Prior knowledge:
CATH class of the largest domain: Alpha Beta
Helix content: 25-40%
Radius of gyration: 20 Å
Distance between the termini: 45 Å
Shape: elongated
Mean pLDDT: 90
Number of strands: 14
Amino acid sequence: MRIVVADDSAFMRRVLVDALRARGHDVLGVAKDGDEALALCASLQPDVLTLDLAMPGRDGIEVLKAMRAGRSRVAVVVVSAFSPASGARAVDALSEGAVELVAKPAVGEGLQEFIAELDEKVRAAGESAAGPRGRLPVPKRPRPRCAKRRAVVVACSTGGPRALSELLPALPAPLGVGTLVVQHMPPGFTASLADRLDGSSKLEVREAAGGDRLEPGTALIAPGGRHLRLENGGITRLSEGAPIGGLRPRADLTIRDIAREYKDRTLLVVLTGMGKDGLEGAQEVKRQGGVVLVEAESTCTVYGMPRAVAEAGLADAELPLPELAAAIVAEAGA
């Protein structure tokens, strides 16, 4: 990928440049503040900008707003110091157009895991900016409205916060028998995401606490760093079991639990994201007679999770994001 690096720390700029070049990327330029970052992106047209949020003058959020206003096609990966207390700023960055977040390593932490994550997310961001590639499936349309009220489970990863900010406010309350959302995020960020979504949605959106019962008027978001399980007639349980495929929460676990609990009254919605999380869950949903909807490639930030489900022949409908809310209501019941 062709990359511009923006960070006010000379040391961090050197770390990022060396790490990216070692992974085969072409670093076109470096910026020490927001104005320099915008100027370099305008003149060099990189695939990706790595952006610190805390910079003098125009900070990272203001850079994102300016890029959004200017309809920039440069994908942004935020590389910044995050903590649970800064979760709201992370959600702000995602809502303003950042594709992904990478936390800077803390003092004493090794660099190898950080570099691997940076490389993976920069590649995914660059591919998302290039637009849809390869197979462009013809969207399959939803079936006639179903008489059953279904439990809804939504799975998403890269680009998910932006997709959720469009999808959830378009859904009615009540909806089906209840809604669970699994979004891949680090610990501490999902509570802020839930708060933001709650403020714009008819559904009550909150982070699952464990012991919650599915309710038609509520959407529960899996906490970052914990698996969200379902048992005993629709009661949530939080698990600190080992990450699966590097993921905790893992959507497959939640989806399989819902499918076994609600059987043909399960509706799975798979949105944008890297990898194949949701595929095994979708297989269980279909075994139990449930319904699977996936986001079409045309609106995905990263067409990974939906592609895995669609190419396995498990999707009942494959629709662009603006059409998913109506399809969910038709299948889940309002």
